[in-house]
Specification:
Helices cover about 45% and strands about 15% of the residues. By secondary structure, it is an alpha/beta fold.
């Protein structure tokens, strides 16, 4: 007999390492007594989707929208009860996507803004792709909750984009390369640094496993920070996914 258990659909591949990292984070955040209690997942990794940043910034006329809609509809047809997209830049098309399917799509950017608000953080440095920054939708989500935003300098942003595309090509980027960017963000006066591109979450994933104090953690008694204040949007998305399916 087929199971009627709710299924999480992951629209991934943007990039592939970020998608794999999200699935790993989702697994690690679940506390279960047996493997049968884990969330059922349908993963559609589609790295052939055209470059989101290139389209948003006008460097390409090849729109990702139809590809994203098709992938979301395939997940819905396959039985997904809810869809998540572990790619911040793709949320530029969020309104079109939610109108193309009848199942909910969790908004990673809105979830991150709510998380930051609940932590009591008022000022963040947003590290993201050129497409995300130009689109302005992450900033709007944060500003809606009275969260002030700073962004990297022009030269640092260029370095950041090089790092992001290195990861998208499958290269291994050492954590040390990321440190000067984080240092600049801290010197700007931000209370926390938002890793607003899922590739950046890949860089910090191993370090976070080895030293869990390097990020903000929401607990039953609120949010605490130790040492470097980082907020991983993949962590937030995994937590939101687990909360969505808790009573399903």
């Amino acid at each position: 007999m087929a199971s009627d258990k709710a299924i999480l659909g992951i629209l991934g591949g943007m990039g592939t390492q970020a998608t794999a990292c999200f699935y790993d984070v989702l697994h690690k955040q679940q506390s279960v007594a047996s493997e049968q209690e884990y969330i059922d997942v349908l993963l559609y990794s589609k790295p052939s989707i055209p470059d989101r940043t290139a389209f948003i910034t006008g460097q390409s006329t090849d729109s990702p929208l139809d590809h994203l809609i098709q992938a979301a509809q395939i997940l819905e047809s396959a039985g997904a009860s809810c869809i998540v997209i572990p790619c911040a830049t793709s949320h530029f098309f969020y309104s079109d996507l939610i109108n193309a399917v009848s199942v909910p799509i969790l908004n990673m950017l809105e979830e991150t803004a709510l998380y930051i608000k609940e932590c009591g953080i008022k000022n963040v440095c947003l590290l993201a792709t050129d497409g995300t920054l130009k689109g302005g939708y992450f900033q709007k989500a944060l500003e809606k909750h009275a969260i002030s935003i700073t962004v990297p300098s022009e030269s640092t942003q260029a370095d950041l984009m090089d790092i992001i595309y290195d990861i998208k090509r499958g290269e291994v980027v050492p954590e040390e390369i990321f440190n000067p960017i984080i240092t600049e963000a801290q010197e700007s006066g931000a209370e926390a640094v938002v890793l607003g591109c899922t590739e950046l979450c890949v860089i910090t994933d191993n370090a976070r496993d080895n030293a869990r104090g390097n990020s903000w953690h929401k607990t039953d008694t609120g949010c605490t920070s130790r040492n470097l204040s980082l907020i991983s949007i993949l962590d937030v998305l995994a937590e939101a996914s687990i909360s969505f399916f808790k009573d399903k």
